[in-house]
Amino acid sequence: MRLQNSIELKEPFSLAQTLECGQIFRVFKRNDYYIVPYKGSVLKLAQHRNMLSYEVFGKEVSKTELGNFLGITHSISEINQYLLNRDKRILPFLDYVKGLRIIKMEPYEAAISFIFSIQSSIKLISKRLNILSEIAGRPFKVDDEIIFLFPTSKELGKLSNRDISLLRLGFREKFFREFIEKYSEKDFEKITSKSFEEKEKFLLSIRGVGKKVAHCILLFGFGELSAFPVDVWIKRALECYFGISGSPKKLTEEGRAIFGKFSGYAQEYIYAYIRVFNS
DNA sequence: TGACAGGAAAATA
DNA sequence: TATTTTCCTGTC
After folding, report:
1. What pTM does this model have?
2. Cβ neighbours, 10 Å, residue A110
3. 3-state DSSP: chain A helix, strand, coil percent, rounded to 5?
4. pLDDT tens readout for residues A66-125
5. Most buried of the four, A100, A118, A173, A198, by CB within 10 Å?
6. Contact residues for strand B with beta carbon within 7 Å
7. How far is the CA of A248 from the C1' of B12 (A)?
8. Is A155 exposed, middle or buried (0-12, 13-18, 19+ CB in 10 A)?
9. How confident is the model at residue A278 (pLDDT cuts 50, 70, 90)?
């Protein structure tokens, strides 16, 4: 399907890889396009070779903003060259996942998404985020279907404990209730201009957020491309392919020391590669 | 149906 | 301070 507006892609870009690699969880795949709720709008996205076409429903989203959201503005040849210079062993990973970009979503939404990700599969994370959007978010008509926007902190504040129990967060439910009560979009907006370390410190101060989730929020919510989230998969890959081991906390620092300012891309390349070859 | 996957907090050394 | 145990749900 060719949609109304388009962006010409100058470097390798894969919409499918970018939307399906597990960095964003509310993506609805249709036959020949994707539906993605984004801020106060709903996007329809499709790709044909080096052409990305799109349509915006609701509040206008500029071409530049869409480019930022999808990581199209990242200079991938520069990033890849940088990573190769840091450590040549990244080559097979980077070669395999050509076109994967790192998304830049809203920090508040990213925080909730990755709090839900703890000890959960991608499928379960999506399910929880969709339930949350359906019970608290604004419905939006796109063609002949209803898509729910991600709820605002104000909308989440109206939820009852019974609503929240639908998410089946188990003993972590209290952390999420505390999160809704304590934080709003503003708390995340006001730290965007602060340093990496200060952002990390703030995120780690949230109950239920540890090193891994903090780095996911830094990477996908704040666009901090030097973040390096270490989950069990990355831990295994670092041991197997790079010969380094230790606690996930320690591996985050080691990964950052190896891959520098684009550690996040290295992490995503490794993650996408290892997940494909282990399922 | 019992084993297993998954990350942070709490407990322990 | 660093390591181990516990917590819960979904999947097969």
Report:
1. 0.95
2. 23
3. 50, 15, 35
4. 999 999 999 999 999 999 999 999 999 999 888 999 999 999 999 999 999 999 988 899
5. A100
6. A 117-121, 175, 207-214, 231-233, 248
7. 20
8. middle
9. low
